[in-house]
Write the structure tokens for this entry.
Amino acid sequence: MDLMVYLLLIVGIVLLMIGAEVMVRGAEQIALGFGISPLVVGLTVVAFGTSAPELAVGIRSALLDQADIALGNVVGSNILNILLILGLSAMITPMVVESRIIRREIPILLFVSFLLFALALDGTIASIEGVILFAGSVVYTVYAIRKSRKEASESTTVEERESPLKAMAFVLVGLGMLVFGAELLVDNAVILARWFGVSELLIGLTIVSIGTSLPEIATSVVAAMRGMRDMAVGNVIGSCLFNVLAVSGATAIFASGGLSVDPGLLQFDLPVMLAATVACLPIFATGHVISRWEGCVFFVYYLAYTTYLLLFSHGSESVEVMNWAMLSFVLPLTFVTLAILWYRDLKA
């Protein structure tokens, strides 16, 4: 039985990697065939596709009355998207950030993230509030599609293009592999976690969020390796938007009596998500590039966040020391450095 769980975990990872390659290829051909930039495809088609596992897990968790897993999955996935995925992608190759991301998508993401935090302050995200959030995802999708019509297509030769039907087939096949692979990975990872007595909130913030974000990880890393850096960045930002609006909204709609919010999520994890989102603005705006060292900063912060969660779950005394170091030294130093770099860039 133990061996079967580990084997299914491996199968899930393999499906995620292959599915990401297939879907990125299909999305690239859609962008070329319809004259849509890879950035817009990443913000819409790829982002919605890679967020499908979060949506499936969220709705299923809501129906099973596992609110901590559902909301922890959304918050943990967004933290992972920004800190880990952008960090890894930028460490592979510096990520060029288009001006429209800084002008439009980042402000929209900041607004909806603070909106989610405000709705959660009373301890419950009601069903009507879930409807508002989900409706926001529909409005954003329509907005992005209309804007995409004004985007110029990437210059390429006709021979490189495939038929739209074939490209869409690649996207659907890749998406199916991503969803099935993520389901295998998450289900069996949760089994392992519960064997070790881990709480549902921690499962949602770590194992489930990592498992459901593996499509984003695989897709963004593959896109970065293929030189499609616009799609890699667009996938991360678009996925964060869909997570906050569509996933948390649908989860609150399906949850009986609304989606309850754990106090620990309000006190620590949601503020961390907001801080990571706010940090995108100066980092993206500095030269419109996420450099390798900035990617390393993101990556190290994700490791620190995960370490904190693990230490806290075991009641370690090291949590207070780590908390003091992060709040008193590391975070202030990072924000001062980013502010100085942003000021120099604006002055130049």
Observations:
- The radius of gyration is 19 Å.
- The longest helix spans residues 2-34.
